[in-house]
User: Fold this.
Amino acid sequence: MEQFHGTTILSVRRDGNVALGGDGQVTLGNIVIKSTARKVRRLHHDRILAGFAGGTADAFTLFERFEAKLEKHQGHLVRSAVELAKDWRTDRALRRLEAMLAVADKEASLVITGMGDVLEPERGVIAIGSGGAYAQSAALALLDNTALSAEEVVRKSLEIAADLCIYTNRSLVIETL
Assistant:
């Protein structure tokens, strides 16, 4: 799966809770344009968490489309994700968008891609973006070897990713359900 430069988004499930967090760095090539961007949001009456990796304008377009799908399908996450992925793959304008979404509610965590994929992780850990592999590795190790909460695992994992990935910083936004 292609990874987009400029962000790290991580979601972790533990003990019936889910946390989704991201860093705030926006880069243009190898220059930091902004360090405090908010790439993680609460959607549909604060019951859905969503984060994006990729082009900012593309991500805003996808957030709007995903929110419309959530409204249409009464907040049903999986159905809304599948419908967005279908539109994204088949719509001529949407097809050109270069971004990925990580979304979660109390029951499910998903990655939505422009290739029509709606992927659910096996261990409840989602990581996208440039620092995603670093954050995911850290999260899996912390889940296996600590009793930290989902939010604490996300925070520590994103901090580890920030130490390793030049496209990830420590200006974190973390939301929990």
Remarks:
- Helices lie at 56-72, 77-90, 132-145, 150-164.
